[in-house]
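Predict structure. Chain length: 277.
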Amino acid sequence: MPPSILHASDLHFGEPHRPAAAEALLRFVEEASPAAIVISGDLTQRAKVREYRAARDFLAGLPRVPLVVTAGNHDVPLYRVWERIFAPYRNYRRYIAKQLDSVLDVSCGGRGPGLRFVSLNSSAPLRAIVNGRVGNRQLDFAAAAFADAPDRARRVLVVHHNLIRLRDGEPVPPLPRSPRILRRAQEWGVDLVLAGHIHRTHLAWSAQRRERGGGRGFPVVVAGTTTSNRGRGAEEGRNSLNLVSVDGSGVDVTVYLYCQEAGRFLAHDNRRFDRRA
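Prediction complete.
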């Protein structure tokens, strides 16, 4: 079996949080036994201490699996203006992680090549509170991290904000300068991008197929909201997560939706991304 990544997002501890979905997420992790867990931002609703404490306790209850977490726009204070200006990540650093941009290597043993995760903080409390930003220094950080990746390791970029414009449903603007970010990711040899923010699942290629010699592209996988009542579009009122398998020939994504009657996440859809030449 190839290594799998459990991809959740937008937990929103606070008023929108759904404890039943969070409990189902914990059970799902136990059953799936992924090689790594990725939570792509918005752990809290309003970046309050009590919300961060709840998020910290939830993360501590996860199985001892390598964990990749990044901040989202809701993880910095919105209405506490002075805090947003002078100490926007104080609570995030205290309760979740000290580093905002990070690198993590996961060895998958006999199940396949390892994984290198590079997580970039796309929240921007001063410039673009909702839409986010990724700066040049962060891109240089990612370039260096991927250049130093172990041989044969699959390269996974994690951000909170979506990098692909949706072709259906509610129009959501992608992260500013997203075409440039995707071009740089192509140069880094990225195999997969994991994101959140839009509260609905979206699976797409980073680049369209071209008739003659275009870039191979890579999958961009966006998770819906896993444990809040803020689902949108086709997932309005729903909770979702992704189980992503990476192997030598491509990426396989299975989307799971929370079923209240069953009290668990059930497989809903699947898409295969074959590696491009």
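Summary: The chain has a mean pLDDT of 92.
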